[in-house]
Design goal:
The protein is built from 12 helices and 8 strands. The protein has about 300 residues and is an alpha/beta fold. It has one domain: TIM Barrel. The chain has an 8-stranded parallel β-barrel with strand order 1-2-3-4-5-6-7-8, surrounded by 7 helices.
């Protein structure tokens, strides 16, 4: 299985919705165009910032069809799965595979705290159900309440051939390094999951990042990656330093509303998040706007 294309800056794309909380086709197509023209190397449909936990399966399929059609093969489109139930994850994986996605990303189950044996079975069962599609693991301890261990990831990477990589959003660079070190013998693809740590992740051997910032400042976040692969390490580091104040300003808002607020500030007409989330409170909004102005984004 060729996995050479699995690299670069991938955006967990915002899900654009209308007043009835249905996917806004025109808005979704505009957002796909924006991130592709901004230089992103891939799109992740229904990642965390895509508010996957809010969307019914039939609506997910409709949204995926829209994104795949608009992308038209210009960049790989990956499909994010975050369900708790293994059977539901398998169903979603098969649906995505039927639409010829470039890969599937599986978040460890939320709310539960499974044993390593249970997690192994969960990931392997899903991967085995879609033998022709590369599978990535998504480690997000901040949202699930627990982290995937280096030992578990190594076992999955070496024993389940279709599991070809992962995204690590732990923010713990020792852990990210270990995921890379322990699996470098099989070309296991590790993506950094923190926008502020893209440069550092690349220095440690990551193949790229899955970066929320791609939704509203693709030209800045891709510069970190592009300069790095060109060998301009100082330029890459400086690009990272330009990204960080804008990205850190998001912390003043509640998850996941800031990404939509920032996209709207850039004139993208993204609309609002799914309820119960609401647009950022004024103090957070003002901080976000100020940092975007400093960075020359608005």
């Amino acid at each position: 299985m060729n996995t050479d294309y699995i690299k670069g800056v991938i955006v967990p794309i915002i899900t654009v919705i209308d007043e009835d909380e249905k996917i806004d086709e025109a808005g979704m197509r505009r957002q796909v165009e924006f991130v592709i023209k901004g230089g992103l190397h891939g799109i992740l449909a229904f990642g965390s910032n895509g508010e996957f936990y809010q969307i019914e399966e039939d609506e997910m399929e409709r949204g995926l069809e829209i994104m795949m059609d608009q992308a038209a093969g210009r960049v790989p489109v990956y499909f994010g799965i975050g369900a708790i139930n293994t059977k539901k994850c398998v169903r979603l994986a098969k649906m995505a595979a039927a639409h010829n996605v470039a890969g599937i990303s599986i978040l460890q189950p939320m709310f539960l705290k499974p044993t390593e044996d249970e997690l192994y079975t969960h990931f392997k069962t899903i991967a085995d159900a879609v033998p022709d599609v590369p599978v990535l693991i998504y480690n997000n301890p901040g949202r699930t309440g627990y982290t995937l261990s280096g030992g578990l990831v190594e076992k999955l990477a070496h024993e389940v051939p279709k599991i070809v990589g992962m995204k690590d959003t732990s923010g713990d660079m020792t852990q990210t390094e270990e995921f890379i070190r322990r699996n470098r013998d099989i070309n296991f693809k590790v993506f950094g999951g923190k926008d502020t740590l893209l440069y550092v992740s690349l220095c440690c051997g990551a193949v790229g990042g899955v970066c929320t910032a791609g939704n509203f400042m693709p030209e800045l976040i891709t510069e970190v990656y592009n300069k790095f692969v060109e060998g301009d390490l100082e330029g890459s580091k400086e690009a990272q330093f330009k990204v960080n104040p804008v990205r850190l300003s998001m912390d003043a808002a509640s998850f996941p509303v800031a990404a939509k607020d920032m996209a709207n500030l850039r004139g993208l007409d993204i609309g609002v998040p799914y309820l119960p989330s609401k647009p950022s409170h004024q103090a957070a909004y003002d901080k976000i706007k100020a940092e975007m102005e400093k960075a020359g984004l608005i």
